């Protein structure tokens, strides 16, 4: 009887875990819907279709590359130099990477990671709108979405990752392993890509290019907030204990609860919204972007923070992001169209570092073999933002630029990236009108 009960609980646990991850996927789809709305709202009308299609086409590119090699990198790369010669876990021909009635988890687990990858590429997408070639962007999207972020996840977002086991790195809801690295990656591309025409005056003073549709930006950001419920849940590992208790752990195997992260998610959102509103004097773009920045800043430690800690960290993280955004813009002439480097990169890196002080001494692993420290978090923030974020995209962007395929021609940028499509539609429209007129004249002459 005991054996049968154990088998039943084990089966129930597997079914629950499968459904748990499965339901996070459509919730995280909303993040991408929100990013599409958000980017289109920021871009000017002459670039709307290009902005939308660029963000849409990263979906198939990142999906197929995540299936072919991205997920494998996560399993093979957990040591400092990885173990890429051994094991097939995550490769397309592995038994778990397809129809397999003996494995209920791999498909939904892969899908959760895939939606993280879409988010990673979309973060970069917003920063570079209105001037990058679609082909160049898709190359960079694959680099970030299926390679560099998977390496950082292997190193710092797994119980077996060397940054966790050796440094006690802790980043439960991806302040650094998604947001920090992608903010750094966006900065690397922007450094090479350069600003939009007219962004800076002849004396170097930055000009404001306001959102084309601030109402759509607000809707997009609220949809992103909603999608983050799925993001947070997918960062956990659900468990049914044998006494019948439903609970959860972080991806490191350390304990938390959905109740804990609900408190802290909402409190960090509140702090970020208040800070964004105050810092920007009520500007809608920065107010609602501040809400996202507050969530990101507190995400590293939201498995353990007190709600008031999450609230205050959300406030300070947005203050840091806002100040750094305008300082970098003025000092280095960086044109980040949607504030992605600030909201994701600066707020996320701040969140990783502050976590080391707030949670100093807490276990980084369930067995207590590593503990959270400030130096482990500072080292992790540097690796995420610079080593795996800024440097790879800067190098690849340099290569693409040298080949003349990174940035659109000046005359196309002036006319708008949708110009050719609009011209073709206008020409076809005129031909249809001419055909209708000819048909009408022919009919009236009978």
Task: Describe the fold and architecture.
By secondary structure, the protein is mainly alpha-helical. It has a single domain (2-408), classed as Ammonium transporter AmtB like domains (Ammonium transporter fold), CATH 1.10.3430. It has 14 helices and three strands. A three-stranded antiparallel β-sheet has the order 1-2-3. Strand 1 (236-240) and strand 2 (246-250) form a beta hairpin.
Helix and strand arrangement:
Layout: H1 2-42, H2 48-76, H3 106-127, H4 134-156, H5 162-167, H6 175-193, H7 214-234, E1 236-240, E2 246-250, E3 255-256, H8 258-279, H9 284-299, H10 307-332, H11 340-358, H12 374-402, H13 410-415, H14 419-444
Antiparallel strand pairs: 1-2, 2-3
Helix/strand/pairing category: mainly alpha
CATH architecture: Orthogonal Bundle
Helix content: 55-70%
Number of distinct helices = 14
CATH superfamily: Ammonium transporter AmtB like domains
CATH topology: Ammonium transporter fold
What is the overall pLDDT average?
92
Number of strands: 3
The best one-word shape is globular
Count of all domains:
1
How big is the Rg?
A: 24 Å
**Termini separation (Å)?**
92 Å
